[in-house]
Amino acid sequence: MAASVGAVVLFGPPGAGKGTQARGLAQRLGVPHISTGDMIRAQVAAGTSTGRQAHSVMAQGSLLPDEWVNRMVESRLREPYCGRGLILDGYPRTRGQAQALEEMLAVDGGRMLLIHIVVGYNEIIRRTTGRRMCPHCGTIYNIFARPPQQDNLCDRDQTALEIRSDDREEVIRERLQAYDRETRPVLECLREKGHVIHEVDGTLAPERVAERLAAILEAA
User: Fold this and answer.
1) DSSP element (H, E) containing 150
2) Partners of 162 in the beta sheet?
């Protein structure tokens, strides 16, 4: 199934649940999950020059330059383990990135399956301000909707949970504005090019969202 799709691309505002659903899809299909957000945060955590610059940009809620992100994604797409397909989470976010992705996939004749997880902004604010992440295994929790079994401890490895620096409300609002400004037009651009955008209600329970995504993949 994955090989016939090439890349399953998940769209949705920050906090829509793309990461959770992408990891589930990757496990279900046996293909890599490529998250530009995770790659960038890894650079920040490692203290690289790119990471330091990215942290400054992200702290303001702005999007990173296309050329940075395109290089990271292209490097991953060229790795052998992506040959059977992949799940893209958080990319493309701009028209320039969308054009770059089309060109990358065209090299091997791959195509895109585009899915938009739709969630209102008030719900996004509630979700993201309550989000907590395990720094060890990357599991995401939410103190309102999906709290850990023990307060502030990961269910899997008992590591103390952390609040990501980009989950502060003022940063989230900036990111939502950036999404409206930069990413929503990408969806319209792809529609104009003839791509089908499948929409899924992201306010449903995560397992229901996963069911809807599975049905779209089966139909594809």
Assistant:
1) none
2) 133
Q: Choosing from 41, 76, 127, 131, which is the catalytic residue? A: 131
**Which residues, at least 6 apart from 107, have a Cβ–Cβ distance to it below 8 Å?**
none
What's the rounded mean pLDDT across residues 80-97? 89
Q: What is the pTM of this model?
A: 0.76
Question: Is 93 designated active site?
Answer: yes
Buried b (16+ CB within 10 A) or exposed e, 91-118: bbbbbbbbbbbbebbeeeebebbbbbbe
Whether the predicted pLDDT of 2 surpasses 50: no
Print the domain residue range for 133: 2-219
Establish whether 71 is a catalytic residue: no
Question: Does residue 164 have an active-site annotation?
Answer: yes
Count of structural domains within the chain: 1
Q: Please indicate whether residue 14 or residue 22 has the higher confidence score (pLDDT).
A: 22
